[in-house]
Recover the amino acids of this structure.
């Protein structure tokens, strides 16, 4: 198989962002995933979100594990930093990188195999610690690279091309809520109108922001009886809200009647406006969110939208009281503060 | 507008919705092939460009020959309506050099005599008279002779070719190229009455012809009746007559200082010819501004490249003379003014008049039709305003059922490619008329096919990797050579190597993106991969609104939107055809084959396609 590279020519009327870039400048190499893979749509949504936020590509670090999903960082943000780590170990490598250099925007890309099977322990601890990152799980319910065996997120009774799943599913969203994640959302690769604003909100959140994105595997798990197929998700999608991200610089002009909209200020000054699609849903209540998810999952519905948000969350750096400067910017004086400082440290243990 | 798409279906109000595109109408995909659509003869341009890239020059030539009859001539002289239409010009800086690629096919075609039609093995009893041996008449002859018609071609000149021979200088069109392409038609054995000027249409009709085709061109050069015209007459020449005399070798020199009046292509041919016949100081003087000149931009470039200045906004006032000999031309300087309706008017600029001394003047200020030989009492109507025959634009038939027109004789001066298109249409009509068919209702349709080009998952039968090269320039012979001999061709043509690279610039617009709604699962893969942001899935609405809602706005209203019927989510697929690269990535990334790349091939109906 040969692939042609996406031609460099672009439409003359596409917009540029504050940095003078078009969305084409945020692309990566041509995808080698199967045609129609939901993951490619998520890559396109990430490109769009970073473009709209005018993020400088060199300020982003993309980290991933192993799997179809973990290949995707090659296909977007070609001018950003990247680290393709060991299977299931993306969270710990990312945690280390984050501790070393807090100035970068950390984007962890993983899949249901990488996060819910081999890497479930890593996933859990990253949530607990509140590492400042966006954790995108590209969730298709199967192991695509090994030809479509059910993964740990496949729903019980869901059918793939060749089998019926017996095991109970791991719901990463519910786990994230239990484990203390401060930004929890679910979306669908086939709905960029929902996904792009959610990614923008996640990118401007401080603390761990988890996005479980259902991403149909066209090759192995897009048959009508699969609960991770385009048709099933479209038919059972219960979006709880619509989100608008208003950057700190923008003037807020639109007024909404109370009750229809929840507004949340984030640390970086941005404002999230959540238009309620389900009247009784409040994304600031963790316990109710968990109950809501269980209830609707039992009815066979796929709840999407921004499910929980704690805008006051602190991240791991705050908990550890680490230095504000990235380690690579520390000079000799900070790193070798001298014998007096050493003595003071030693004294504190006596 | 806030519409939740993922949560359920969205339906536009039926009254607002844009109707789905009817791709069964051949015109829809034909319009996407901008070059072919713009070409009067609808030559399948991308098809022959691909053949050139494959080195199949003979095949490329024959596709051209079938469609436009004079590929070698047109590859050097065509007005190229295809090039301003070329999509490449909207995507990058300049269109594909379509015209000069045609010449590559002609230059490298090798032996094609065996591929030409043979003279009819037996003739029917229908005799057709063709007045004039220019491109229109020769096209009619080529289309009718193989069907068994007897064609009699009249021309006042001793050889076939018409204006291609008399008005186009040999340094642009070598005689051998013209002879070769005329001879392919003469080999079909028409009866030629060259050197014989038709003096009466009434008499011609009385000879019992089944039909008469008039392709006599626009043979009268417009004169300039200003003071001094008569006194200076010996050194004032009508441009097209002068070019004709040069072509037949009757004139081989001109004065050192020459002024050419006029801003069209004839003026450009006059000044460049004068430059080669002893004119050392040749200047072109034009009434209008530079941009408004009728001459093609490349012809202006070529003239200026030979050191010929072009002066604008100067209106000739009188020819100056002394002792019965021309001494120069006096010009009034003007400027352009625009009225409230935006119409341009030339008014005196107030600057003093300019006198330009010269030895000879060439007047190239326009051409006119002339039909002194057509009687006005034979049932052939002329319009009152222009005194031109009334001719049907589809059938080329006049109000006399047996008389047909084409080329410049039909609707005034146009160009060779229009003459060819008229010739094909007239041949169809003549054949149908002879068969007693209705020329409009029973007219044969074009031949159209739409064929998938898929060879494998990432394999297409065409080169879909878009070349980023800018337009290549055709090499020219050095001035030292060309400016001293009126018969040496200036343009050398693309080499095979350059022709190959230029051919790869073609976007293959005839390989169409064809959408099959029933197969689409709305996965967005095509939207994400499209390098030009052509594709959008959106709720349907009225077209003007739809154009603004797309991933990239569709602001070029001359280009269609391809709109599907409603999909499962209620949305529609909208593709803006404007800047599509035809790279096929949408089809490569489509998991279900809802997108396919299909080659659209259209051949216009010729007389041989009539079902009779």
């Amino acid at each position: 198989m040969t692939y042609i590279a996406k031609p460099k020519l672009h439409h003359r009327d596409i917009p540029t962002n504050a940095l003078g870039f078009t969305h084409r400048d945020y692309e990566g190499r041509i995808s080698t995933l199967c045609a129609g893979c939901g993951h490619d749509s998520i890559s396109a949504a990430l490109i769009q979100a970073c473009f709209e936020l005018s993020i400088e590509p060199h300020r982003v670090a993309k980290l991933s594990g192993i799997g179809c999903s973990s290949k995707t960082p090659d296909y977007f943000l070609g001018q950003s930093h990247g680290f393709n780590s060991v299977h299931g170990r993306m969270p710990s490598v990312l945690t280390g990188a984050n501790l070393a250099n807090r100035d970068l925007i950390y984007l962890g890309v993983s899949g249901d195999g990488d996060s819910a099977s081999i890497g479930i322990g890593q996933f859990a601890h990253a949530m607990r610690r509140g590492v400042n990152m966006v954790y995108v799980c590209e969730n298709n319910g199967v192991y695509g690279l090994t030809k479509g065996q059910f993964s740990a997120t496949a729903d019980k009774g869901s059918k793939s091309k060749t089998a019926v799943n017996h095991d109970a599913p791991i719901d990463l969203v519910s786990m994230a809520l239990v484990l203390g994640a401060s930004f929890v959302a679910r979306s669908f690769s086939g709905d960029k109108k929902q996904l792009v604003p959610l990614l923008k909100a996640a990118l401007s959140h401080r603390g761990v922001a988890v996005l479980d994105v259902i991403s149909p595997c066209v090759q192995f798990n897009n048959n009508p009886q699969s609960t991770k197929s385009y048709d099933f998700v479209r038919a059972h999608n219960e979006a709880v809200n619509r989100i608008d991200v208003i950057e700190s610089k923008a003037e807020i002009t639109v007024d909404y009647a109370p009750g229809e909209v929840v507004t949340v200020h984030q640390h970086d000054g941005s404002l999230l406006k959540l238009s309620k699609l389900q009247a009784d849903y409040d994304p600031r209540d963790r316990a109710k969110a968990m109950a809501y998810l269980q209830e609707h999952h039992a009815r066979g519905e796929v709840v999407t939208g921004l499910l929980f948000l704690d805008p006051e969350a602190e991240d791991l750096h705050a908990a550890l009281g680490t230095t504000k400067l990235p380690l690579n910017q520390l000079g000799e004086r900070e790193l070798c503060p001298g014998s007096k400082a050493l003595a003071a440290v030693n004294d504190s243990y006596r | 507008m806030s519409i939740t798409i993922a949560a359920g279906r969205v339906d536009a109000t039926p009254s607002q919705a844009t109707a789905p595109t009817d791709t069964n109408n051949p015109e829809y995909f034909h319009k996407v092939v901008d070059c072919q659509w713009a070409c009067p003869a609808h030559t399948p341009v991308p098809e022959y460009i691909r053949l050139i890239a494959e080195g199949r020059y003979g095949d490329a030539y024959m596709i051209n020959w079938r469609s436009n009859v004079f590929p070698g001539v047109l590859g050097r002289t065509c007005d190229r309506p295809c090039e301003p239409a070329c999509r490449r010009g909207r995507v990058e800086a300049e269109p594909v050099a379509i015209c000069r690629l045609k010449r590559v096919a002609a230059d490298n075609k090798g032996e094609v005599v065996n591929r030409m039609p043979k003279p009819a093995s037996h003739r029917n009893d229908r005799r057709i008279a063709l007045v004039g041996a220019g491109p229109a008449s020769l096209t009619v002859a080529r289309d009718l002779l193989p069907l068994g018609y007897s064609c009699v071609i009249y021309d006042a000149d001793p050889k076939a070719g018409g204006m291609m021979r008399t008005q186009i200088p040999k340094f642009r069109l070598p005689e051998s190229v013209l002879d070769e392409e005329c001879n392919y038609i003469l080999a079909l054995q028409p009866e030629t009455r060259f050197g014989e000027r038709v003096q009466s249409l009434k008499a011609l009709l009385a000879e019992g012809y089944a039909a008469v085709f008039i392709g006599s061109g626009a043979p009268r050069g417009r004169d300039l009746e200003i003071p001094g015209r008569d006194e200076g007459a010996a050194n004032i020449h009508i441009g097209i007559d002068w070019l004709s005399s040069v072509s037949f070798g009757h004139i081989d020199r001109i004065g050192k200082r020459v002024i050419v009046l006029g801003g069209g292509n004839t003026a450009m041919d006059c000044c460049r010819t004068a430059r080669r016949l002893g004119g050392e100081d040749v200047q072109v003087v034009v009434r209008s501004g530079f941009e408004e000149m009728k001459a093609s931009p490349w012809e202006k470039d070529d003239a200026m490249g030979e050191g010929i200045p072009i002066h604008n906004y100067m209106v000739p006032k009188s020819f100056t003379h002394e002792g019965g000999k021309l001494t120069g031309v006096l010009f009034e300087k003007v400027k352009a003014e625009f009225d409230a309706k935006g119409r341009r008017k030339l008014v005196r600029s107030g600057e003093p008049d300019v006198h330009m001394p010269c030895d000879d003047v060439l007047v190239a200020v326009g051409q006119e039709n002339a039909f002194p030989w057509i009687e006005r009492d034979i049932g052939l109507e002329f319009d009152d305003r222009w005194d031109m025959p009334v001719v049907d634009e589809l059938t080329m038939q006049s109000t006399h059922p047996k008389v047909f027109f084409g080329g410049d004789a039909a609707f005034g001066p146009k160009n060779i490619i229009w003459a060819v298109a008229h010739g094909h249409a007239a041949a169809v009509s003549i054949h149908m008329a002879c068969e007693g068919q209705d020329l409009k209702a029973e007219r044969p349709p074009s031949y159209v096919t739409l064929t998938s080009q898929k060879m494998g998952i990432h394999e297409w039968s065409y080169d879909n990797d878009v070349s980023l090269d800018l337009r290549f320039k055709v090499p020219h012979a050095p001035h030292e050579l060309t400016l001293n001999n009126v018969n040496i061709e200036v343009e050398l043509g693309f080499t095979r190597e350059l022709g190959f690279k230029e051919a790869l610039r073609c976007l293959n617009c005839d390989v169409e993106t064809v959408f099959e709604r029933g197969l689409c699962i709305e996965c967005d893969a095509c939207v994400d991969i499209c390098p030009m942001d052509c594709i959008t899935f959106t709720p349907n609405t009225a077209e003007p609104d739809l154009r603004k809602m797309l991933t990239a706005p569709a602001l070029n209203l001359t280009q269609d939107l391809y709109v599907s019927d409603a999909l499962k989510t209620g949305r529609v697929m909208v593709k803006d055809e404007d800047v599509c690269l035809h790279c096929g990535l949408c089809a490569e990334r489509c998991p279900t084959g809802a997108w396919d790349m299909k080659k659209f091939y259209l051949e216009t109906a010729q007389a041989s396609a009539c079902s009779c």
About this structure: The first helix of chain B runs from residue 26 to 32. Chain B has four domains: 1-42+506-612, 43-114+468-504, 117-219+369-434, 221-365. DSSP finds 22 helices and 24 strands in chain B.
